[in-house]
Every structure is written in structure tokens, then in C-alpha cells.
Amino acid sequence: MADNQQIEMVGMNRSAYLRVLAFFLAPAVLIYTLFSVYPLLATIFDSLYLRHEGGALTFNGLGNFQTLLTDETWSKPFWNALRNNLIFFIIHMCVQNPVGLALAALLSLKQLAFRNTYRTLIFMPTMLSVVIIGFIWQLILSPLWGIWKMGLNAVGLGVLFGPYLGQEHTALITISLISVWQFVGIPMILIYTALLAIPDELVDAATVDGLNQWQAFFHVKLPLIWPTIGLVSVLTFVANFNAFDLIYAMQGALAGPNFSTDIMGTLFYRTFFGNQLQLGDPTMGSTIATMMFVIILMGLLVYLYVIQRRIQRYSF
Amino acid sequence: MAQVSITSLQKSYGSVDVLKDINLEVEDGSFVVLVGPSGCGKSTLLRSIAGLEAVNGGAISIGGKRVNDLAPAKREIAMVFQSYALYPHMDVEKNMGFGLRFAGTPKQEVAARVAEAARILQLEALLKRRPRELSGGQRQRVAIGRAIVRKPQVFLFDEPLSNLDAALRVNTRVEIAKLHKLLGATIIYVTHDQVEAMTLADKIVVMNQGRIEQAGKPLDLYYRPANTFVANFIGSPAMNMVEIEVTGKNKARTLAGGELGVPLPARAKAGDRLTLGARPEHLTLGAPGKGLTGQLDLVERLGEVGYAHLDMAGGGRFIVEVRGDVKAKRGDKVGVVPDPAKLHLFDANGKACAS
Ligand SMILES: Nc1ncnc2c1ncn2[C@@H]1O[C@H](COP(=O)(O)OP(=O)(O)OP(=O)(O)O)[C@@H](O)[C@H]1O
Ligand SMILES: [Mg+2]
Predict the structure, then answer these.
(1) Which pLDDT score, from 0 to 100, does residue A224 have?
(2) How far is CA B161 from CA A208, B84, B193, B196, B208, in A?
(3) pLDDT for A7
(4) Residues A251 and A112 in one domain
């Protein structure tokens, strides 16, 4: 009924209408299918097979997943990567997003001079290539001639210096913080935009009600930007569990030292494509890729069905 | 004692002077309305009183106490904003009680005051709703409720009715007038709407370019405008004005040549240029050659009264109030006869001549 009305409204008969629909939808559907749906399905499909020496494939059901989760040779690296990935994510949530929020709050202060300059500078690293970021930070942190060491020495804190990227207990944190440094501009810009959308009169009303700037931020502005913070968190989650490039660029595919910076992305890379003595194993690689997909999917579902339903969006 | 007294107030943004030497006394319990063209500084004055803007000079005192350096919350004022500025994440009850709760007022007292305000404004049924679940008029009432709950010495309203439709505006205007009587509160109120100003105000303050042009009772402003700006601004349609040259005792002529008998001030000499002002209802149409001469352009009929628009000889347009039929047709020459007792005269600087 509604359909027919719509067709009448655009003044076409049914088949002409369908042709027009197809004409406009086809490019998007084709491209999306070719580059997103097909690879995803093929990956899931592959993960159900076992590859024998010589290349023959046999159906293995969920056997690969069982191997991945329980067989010592696979499960140890898997759980290690998952744990590291979680730490990577937690550091982003605890550092990148609060810092992004704080920067956004500072940027939205009217008294602040050079606001646009700060905004551009802070956003800049996000637009740089990861290879450049990795290279720059390796130079900065180099134990031989890095300026970090000189800087610490200059202020008398030389004892704090260590070969951060080369120690098992510091490498992951260091890499995480470099990634935070690179991407902090994104939460900042998203939250800054949300803050700008809050009318000034609302803050004026809070001021008349006796709140200072700081309190107005926590009691009035912050509750209004929870939806944006939720969105930033889920974007962080997806990006973190898909991360690969920074670690590959700085620590190599082996994600050293001793796999202490190994995350899902690097584990997948070594498994699927092979590395040094390890042969590439497409079906096991697909199994890991499918696990990554499932993990991200679960994260998204938690966001959509638990978090997003509790936070309310406001229009002004 | 004046409830709010403002002396030599100055405010500038950078090199732009927005308020220049404002002096204003607001009596206890009175309703003062600020009017003026857009950008003249009404909101800035209101926000300065509220403490939301720091001023560059002068003094503001509320209830006899100088408040220049007090935070807004300490000034015992409450403000109702044009956009209402309700907190979107709180229900009506929380919105109204927020300031008090924040100041650490005991729970029962907050609840009692909110209930009282809700009763006065008939918001009882809406207490658990969020602002977005309310209509414009309801939001407006909540905003007023939030102000009442604070029990301030002075209420500040910045164009509170401008977002409402015409019918609701009339209703709410009446509500605000009632509320003023009920609470006996001092109110300073900004509006663009002449009717609001004339009906609500004990005192109207006409502002222009950061200065107060005139302050006084509504009808005083209407009948005795201090200058051409006020004469033009108050009254709708606006006062008609024409430049005249004094030719003798109580005699003048318009620059287009029409002779007029007008009561002139004693010190007017022949050759002085003055501005003559006459409200539409103090003019009558007559035969051509009488009084001033004009050409009828159109007649607006509003029912009982109508307004005849004329192109005057020598330039300018006049609006004349007419009752009953107008014989003349479009393009006809007509005479415009002023009522000599109701004329206004302004000197070359636009100031009203004492008569
Ligand atoms: N933050 C600001 N920075 C610079 N100039 C400002 C600022 N706020 C207001 N002004 C200027 O001050 C003048 C007075 O503004 P104000 O808002 O008080 O006008 P208003 O009388 O309330 O006008 P309206 O009737 O349109 O609300 C305007 O010319 C405006 O451009
Ligand atoms: Mg204004």
C-alpha cells in the first residue's frame, strides 16, 4: 500500500521504479559485497577446513577453533595476544579517551587563545603515516642517542630511563602510549564537536544556579556528551582489536621482545602469511580472523544493546 | 529604597562599547521592561545585572548591597532565558530544584519549594517528565518555576515569550502579570513586543545604542516622548514626523510650503528648524489645501479603525488613523489636519521642546 503510494508519487510504473532502484543501489551493493561480505564469508568458510600438506582441504567443522583454544602450541600465543590486546584497549580507554575529553574541554574554553592552532597540532599525528610515527618514536626513545634520554638526564631523572621498547614489561605499555599519542585527536575532535553543540545559555543557567565552570562541566556538560563518549569508546574498541600496523612497524611481525607486544592483528599476520621459519597457514589464519570478528562483534553488541540503550541522546 | 540601582554602568567588548553610562533605578516590587532595537544592549544589561558578564565600570546594587564582585548565585537573582535553558538530562522536578540542591538546602525544603512552585504554575502533573517531553509553553513554565524556587529578590527575563505562538504568548503574558502580583517580586524584563511592554510594565526603559533614551511609565512615554527616537519607537504605527520652519508666533510652514498654525514654544524664533510629530490618531483627513498636503496611497482596514497611508508633498510618508469611510481614492490629493493640542515638537537634536 505504502509502496504503491510511493511509486505513484514518483510517477512511474512498478517495473520502471524497480529499474531505478536497482540502478542506484547496484553500485553500493556490488562493491560492498565484493570487498566486505564476500571476504568475510570466505574467511568464515575457510576457518572450517583443515589444510593438509600438499594443499588438500578437508572439512573440519569447529575443529580449528578447538585447536586454537586448547592445543598448547596455538592456545598459548592466542591467549597471550588476546591478553595483550585487552591491555592495549584498556590503556586507550584509560588514557586516550580521558585525555581527549580533557583536551576537548580545554579547547571549548572561550578564554583560550590560539584554539585552532592547538586543535590542528593535536590532530596532526592522526593524519601521519604509522611508519613515520613508529620511526620518529624509535628515534626519540633510542637508548643510544634518543632525545628522551637526554631530556630525562637534563632534568635529573636519568634513572627513569630504560630501553622501553626492548623490555618485556614496558614494551606493550610504551607502544600503547605511542598509539594513544597518535590517535588522541580523534576523541578530542568528536567530543569537542559535541561540546560546541551545547548552548551557552545552559551553562549560564548553571552559573546562575551556583555552579562554577568546573562543576558546570561535570553536572551539565558531561551528562550531555555521554552518547559521544560511548561512540568514541566503541570506535576505540574496534580500532584496537583491528590494530596491527604500529606494532608491525616498530617491533616487527614477531612483536617482540618475546611476543610481549603481540596482539590479535600480528598473531593473525604471522599465522596467515607465515613469518621466517613459520609457514603460512590460511585456514588457521582464517580461524584467528574469525575469532577477531567474533570478539569485535560481541563488543559491538554490548555497546548496542547494553550501553546505547541506557544513554539518552539530547537535542537542543 | 530602590531594589536594583545601576549607576554609570559601562561595558565593552574589546573596543566596542556596548553599554555607555547606564543609570537606572528599579523600585522594590516594580515591573521594569527594557525595550530597544536589536543589538542595543538589552541582553547585555540584563546579563550584567545577573553577573554573567563582567562590567568595565559603574556600580550595580541589589537590595542596597553592591554586587559588582559577587557571583551570580550570590546576587539573589533568578534568570529566565529566551531558550529556557532547561537541563535536558533532568526531569522537571530536578530542573527546578537543582540550584537549591546544589547549594545544600535540606531535602524537605527543596521538595516543599518545588511543590509550591509547581502548584502555582500548574506543573504538578509534569514533574517527572523530561524537558523534551514538554510543549513550548510547558517548558516556559518550568523555566519560570526554576526561577521562583530560588526565591530571588529580582527576576530577570530575557525575551521569555518570543518562542511561543501568538495565542500562547497572550496567555503567558497574563500569567506573568498575575505572577508578579502574587509574588510581589521585582522583575526586569526584556522584550521586542510593544504590547508586552505597554501591558506589563510599571516602567519602560527605552534603550538605543547602549544608552537609555528614556525611562518612565508606559503612557508617559507614549504621550510625552523625550526625543524623536522614543517617539518613533513607542506606538504602532509609529509617530509621523515632518520637518518644519518657524515663520512667526505659533506659525510655521513645512519645507514643502504648507502653512501651519501650531502652538510653538516661546523661545522659538522665525527661521528655527523643528521636527513636528503627530500620532496617527491625532491627525484627520480633510479637503486638499487644509493643513499638510499628501497623496493617498492606500487604506488598511482593520475593522473599527483603518490606517490611511499618504505620500506627503515634500517627501516622507504619513499614516493617519481613519474611522468610517474614506471618500478619497488612491492617488487623490488630501489635506492632513493635525490636532494642535496633541502635537509633539522636537528641536534640531531630536530632543522634545518643553511646551
Ligand atoms: N560576546 C560578544 N562579543 C562582542 N560583541 C558582543 C558580544 N555579545 C554581544 N555583543 C554586541 O553587543 C551589542 C549588544 O548585544 P545584546 O545582545 O545586548 O543586544 P540586544 O539588545 O539584546 O539585542 P536583541 O534584541 O537582538 O537580543 C551587539 O551589538 C552585539 O553585537
Ligand atoms: Mg537580546
Answers:
(1) 92
(2) 20, 10, 9, 9, 22
(3) 59
(4) yes
C-alpha cell at A14: 512498478
Question: B95 CB less than 6 Å from ligand 1?
Answer: no
Going from the Cα of B13 to the center of ligand 1, the distance in angstroms, rounded, reads 9
Average pLDDT over residues A142-162: 87
Q: A11 and A149 share a domain? A: no
Residues B269, B246 contacting (CB under 8 angstroms): yes
Residue reference for cell 504590547: B195
Q: How many domains does chain A have?
A: 2
Task: Report chain A's mean pLDDT, rounded to a whole number.
Answer: 90
Q: Which residue range(s) make up the domain with A284?
A: 73-315
Please report the atom of ligand 1 found closest to the CA of residue B47.
18
* Closest chain B C-alpha to A117 CA, distance in angstroms: 22
Enumerate the residues of chain B whose CB falls inside 8 A of the CB of residue A113: none
Q: Are A250 and A257 in contact (CB under 8 A)?
A: no
Quick one: closest CA in A to B146, which residue? Answer: A209
Q: Which residue has the higher pLDDT, B259 or A120?
A: A120
Q: CB neighbours of A263 closer than 8 A, spacing ≥ 6?
A: A81, A84, A85, A88, A243, A244, A247, A255
- Does the interface ipTM go beyond 0.95? no
How far apart CA A253 and CA A245 sit, in angstroms, is 10
Q: Residues A43-66: pLDDT tens digits? A: 999 999 988 877 788 888 898 999
Q: Would you say the CB of residue B13 lies under 6 angstroms from ligand 1?
A: yes
The residue among A209, A211, A220, A316 with the most chain B CBs within 10 A of its CB, best to mutate, is: A209
Dihedral in degrees, nearest 10, Cα atoms B100, B101, B106, B109: 50
Asked if the Cβ–Cβ distance from A208 to B132 is below 8 Å, we say no
pLDDT tens-digit map of B119-165: 988 899 999 999 999 998 899 999 999 999 999 999 999 999 888 88
Which pTM was predicted? 0.82
Indicate if A24 and A111 belong to the same structural domain.
no
